[in-house]
Amino acid sequence: MYAVEVENLTKIYGSGERAVTALTGASFRVKPGELVAVLGPSGSGKTTLLTSVGLVTEPTRGRVTIDGLTVADDGWLPGLDLKRIRRERLGFIFQAHNLIPFLTALENVTVALTINGIGAKEAKQRGMELLESLGLAHRHDNYPANLSGGESQRVAIARALANQPKVILADEPTAALDTENGKNVMALLKKLAVGNRSAIMVVTHDHRMVEGFDRVIAVRDGTLVDGADGS
Ligand SMILES: Nc1ncnc2c1ncn2[C@@H]1O[C@H](COP(=O)(O)OP(=O)(O)OP(=O)(O)O)[C@@H](O)[C@H]1O
């Protein structure tokens, strides 16, 4: 089974004279354990692609299936709890890592677990294990303001992984990092994709990082021009 299947996805923002077609007939699939880059110029539709898979942007037409569950078929399917599906099956990593400033590194990770109903003690144990696996156990009680950019991004990765999602979506996760930290983050994502059998989709402009990916999906003017299907 594919982790992500997108068929004929079209997204039109607005209507009438103001309508903007961001994606036209995009189709692709990502397997578990695959690390895929989404590359393309500004305005080409990369974020729309990622947020459609992330259940944030409602597709106008086409089908989106996450881990075997079809969530959209010409718009969201009725009766789905999108928030819950997002929480349970997806993990998000952003450029500006969005850590909660008044929570420690560990608490930033455990908050994702407690929202999903995991008890405090178990959440703490799992959070520490995750931070440990990312080389951050010794920084667990620091607040984001006292973490470096690379450390913050690794905390954000730990948080995205907390619920062992089948699909991880990252928007420019290395853009704010220097080359060395960027490469470390990419190596970590690669390890996690393989080890956890997660599919990871990364929107990036960062050509320095491209060699770390299994596949590059290239987007131009709302159309996928290359790399749509790795099978
Ligand atoms: N909420 C919105 N309302 C109207 N138009 C939008 C909206 N979001 C995106 N667009 C338009 O859709 C097109 C694709 O945008 P999108 O953000 O997906 O591109 P992108 O490749 O991620 O760009 P960037 O690299 O600059 O972030 C652009 O023309 C953009 O202006």
Question: What does it look like?
Answer:
- By secondary structure, this protein is an alpha/beta fold.
- It has a single domain, classed as 3-Layer(aba) Sandwich (Rossmann fold).
- Helices cover 31% and strands 27% of the residues.
- The protein has six helices and ten strands; from the N terminus they run βββαββαβαααβαβββ.
- The strands form two sheets. The chain has a six-stranded mixed beta sheet with strand order 6-7-8-3-9-10, sandwiched between helices.
- Helix 6 (179-196) links the parallel strand 7 (167-171) and strand 8 (199-203).
- The longest helix has 18 residues, at 179-196.
- It is globular.
- Adenosine-5'-triphosphate (ATP) binds at residues 13-14, 20, 22, 40, 42-48.
- Adenosine-5'-triphosphate (ATP) is lined by residues 13-14, 20, 22, 40, 42-48.
Task: Give a brief rundown of this model.
The chain has 231 residues and is an alpha/beta fold. The chain has one domain: Rossmann fold (3-Layer(aba) Sandwich), CATH 3.40.50.300.
